Amino acid sequence: MKSWLEYLNILGFNYLYFFEKKKKDDKIERLEALEKIVKNCKLCPLHLKRKQAVFADGNPNSPLMFIGEAPGGDEDLKGIPFVGKAGQLLNKMIAKMNLKREDVYITNIVKCRPENNRDPLPEEINTCSPYLVEQIEIIKPKVIVTLGRFSGGFLTGMQGIKNYRGHWFSYKGIPLMPTFHPSYLLHNPKERWLVWDDMKEVLKKLGLPLPK
To answer: Tell me: the pLDDT tens digits for 128-168?
Structure first.
């Protein structure tokens, strides 16, 4: 093994970079394989009326992972999570953190749009959630932020988001901050400051500076 690494050095390869690149390539390959499975999933009736499954968006090497509920109409059309009005608000929230959308990883607990944007059913969450669990395992974020009561309830085991929002939890050793879904904030703008308080705690947990 040592002689092989020395040979790579002679050829001009930095073996630490080589292994890091391979590790990243493995992560991308695993996500691409999972996405292919999700795109072809027919495990629940949601596939019957979807235009496409919505897998994720953003940086798979990000330390920060946002998890929402389910795609809406805009997301179903474009195949990208959080691109409608709620997504625009999420983008503003991310920008307020001095981050860009491409700096974070964004997905939903349910990958297909529930008809007429209704809430996802418990059986739909239970059927689709293994995909999310695998995404978390592959991404290995340093912090998870759940958006809304469905992803928050699934990963924390809690009920009543107003009771547990803003408190730190742990999911398989990963710090988890539950907060309100951006669509809720569109109808309740006076509560945006609560989410901003939550995001400041997330920045502290990540060791990032708070915006002035």
So the answer is: 999 999 999 999 999 999 999 999 999 999 999 999 999 99
Residue 114 lies in a domain: yes
Angle made by CA atoms 137, 138, 143, in degrees to the nearest 5: 65
Q: What is the dihedral of CA 81, 207, 157, 154, to 10 degrees?
A: 10
Mean pLDDT value of segment 116-122? 95
Whether residue 156 contacts residue 164, with contact meaning beta carbons closer than 8 Å, is answered with yes
What is the domain extent for residue 197? 44-206
- Here the CATH number for the domain that contains residue 140 is 3.40.470.10
Q: Has residue 10 been placed in a domain?
A: no
Count of the separate structural domains present in the chain = 1
Amino acid letter for position 16: L
Residue 1's pLDDT is 43
CA angle 154-146-172, nearest 5°? 60
pLDDT category, 20, cuts 50, 70, 90? Answer: very low
| DSSP-assigned letter for residue 104 | S
Determine, yes or no, domain membership for 108.
yes
> Which residues are CB-neighbours of 166 under 8 A, at least 6 positions away?
177, 178, 179, 194, 197, 198, 201
Residue 32 falls within a domain, yes or no? no
- Please write the tens of the pLDDT for every residue from 103-113: 999 999 999 99
